[in-house]
Amino acid sequence: MTANIDNAGVRKAAGTTESAAPASGATGHRTGPWHDPGLTPEARADALIDAMTLREKLAQLVGVWVGASDEGGEVAPFQHDMEEAVDLDDLLPHGLGQLTRPFGTAPVDPAVGALSLSRTQERIAGANRFGIPALAHEECLAGFAAWGATAYPVPLSWGATFHPELIREMAAAIGRDMRSVGVHQGLAPVLDVVRDTRWGRVEETIGEDPYLVGTIATAYVRGLESAGIVATLKHFAGYSASRAGRNLAPVGMGARERADIILTPFEMAVRESGVRSVMHAYTDTDGIPSAADAQLLTGLLRDTWGFDGTVVADYFGIAFLKTLHGVAGTFGEAAGAALGAGVDVELPTVKTFGDPLADALAQGLVSEALVDRAVRRVLVQKVQLGLLDADWRPDPPALAGAAGPDGPAEGDSQVLRGTVRLDTDENRALARRVAQQAVVLLRNDGTLPLAAGSGTPPRIALIGPNADTRTAVLGCYAFPVHVGSLHPGTPLGIDLPTLREACAAEFPHSELVTARGADIDGTSTDGFGEAVELARGADLVILALGDRAGLFGRGTSGEGCDAEDLVLPGVQQQLLDVLLDTGTPVVVTLLAGRPYALGRAVDEAAAIVQSFFPGEEGTTAIASVLSGRTAPSGRLPVGVPRHPGSQPSTYLAARLGHASDVSSVDPAPAFAFGHGLTYTEFAWDDLVVERGRATTEGEFTLSCTVRNTGAREGTEVVQVYLHDPVASVVQPVQRLIGYVRLDLGPGQAARVRATVPADLASFTGRDGHRIVEPGDLELRLSASSDAPRLAARVTLTGPVRTVDHTRRLHMDITTELLTDTP
Is the entire prediction scored with pTM above 0.85? Predict the structure, then answer.
């Protein structure tokens, strides 16, 4: 293709002029084949690309970080210390690809924010020749990250539920709220598999097992996409495997660990969820940054797995190719490397894909075909979202009833304020269900449940830094922490009952006395005396310990808040020890973003209740578990260490990664992956192996009975692990390949039947291909990774079989209720 250089230094196709297409405007008459709903999205995108100048194409590949106006006016560019100021008047005549976080940058009333976004979209569409609005994206890691929106439990709590359908339901609710105010894309879920719990972002992950991560994340994507929101898988790939658990540190892992652990959840989500976007990781693996890894972003993701959506940059990640990774000498080189690898959209704001990329194109250093490839993906997605339809309007559904026939009018901001609720009663009820099912009972000597009513301890001492702190239930991406903390004096926007308030409501017949005892990460022990005195005078101590979420060192958990070891922050362990010394029963209650070693409490506490930042209804959920009103059903998505310095470790370790006589370090956890107690007992029996021999193309079938033998209803989580005793490459001792939750009343039993395809025994062989080998295997039906209940020896026969991304990823599990309560 021959090319011209326009007066802005941007190359454009010969014969293409600025008047190649008529102006459309935001709501005016839209003509041109790109507005024709009778054509396929691809045909509409291609027609538009043919009419666009190069600068107009580039404009679709960038976002601008903005904040909605609390007065309902147009958004204002957010000034970040890593970027230069953005001039919208200069950008918008050429178009704009994305608006970054209009609701998640500063506190704004949801209705007024929707009005501000609507007016901005009208301006964007009206300013460019084709009437193309921007795609607006937001964070939604623990709910829609907007002021006044429901704060759900963090992803580590999603994993603790072992309940994909519940997480799908939650994600659909989050998506509906986002879509109602004009948002199109959500930057979630995180599919990073935990490799080292010292990493500050553990709270954002789903767990340490790739199958659990994959199934829960896939369910979340399905829910978000069902609401019309473009879900975004992140961080692709390997971010969580950074050395020493340090954020954005180099990643140390081999090709098999990457293929069998890190990539597995992404593969499942791409194949099964309908996801439409992927975000590259910041990190490099073996010297290749993900943002410049064509084998990863194009060869594997697109050519092999068949992904056809957009790849977006993690914030500033393309510029990092120059500034952090040193694989690009200029921002233009960084842009070319990312574009060539398969990154389609630069976020959060225009930097490398602006003038630097334009200059590289003008010098012939980057092919315009790469721009066309990326902009086609962007435009197809905008067509799918309805942004190029002839009847598109800028006002979102939340404003439909409040706006006039011509859209919101001047002065509407005051009328609209308070009319959009993003934290409805239905949302809170859903948040409560997730929180309740995510609470994990780690230890119990019989002290729990506390009878709600006259049978509760007469005097309860509620002690600890998280006993009376409203934000103790929130992770670092919840709006009140992530953004609200930068705006002191601004109301939280949602009701966050403290644990003290929740316990007072749950135990109205008990006298509740409180003391802080210590700060989360402080060094002072001055509060110990008061705490000990209250404990000695009480019948029971509920000790609320854990984390304070924050960003980049402003918390003990969260992005950039990595830990040197897994000792409880500050002097919390000392506080725990002095309270154990009082002799009063201590129920340790953790509101945290990661697991911690708990020292003497593992053996001496009356009970240990683990929650991972359980969201706005978290304290109510915890109190209901303490009382027994809610039966505990959560299971650990990550192991709880016995020793604070035993990281990195995981239940997925090979034999050499477990305790041995040749090392003085014992990595065995105090409480293993999948562990969780209930208030009843279960018996597992009657194992029947219906099909114990199969070819490497076949499947096994086995079944067992699980019975609630106690006097209370409860939930058992049947976990199926595969143990491969002899393989051609070193394997984990065992790995999760399936699970199912069973809710059983007293005396009830269920027959669990599992059909296990040989594909689930596959792994990456010596030549880099995934294979199924013949030989003996063991299928363990377990209550946790260290609590096998029944085991079946099975055998694969036949030749070694090579499998690919079309292999079966799941076993079939069916359950049948056998008996009712006597």
Answer: yes
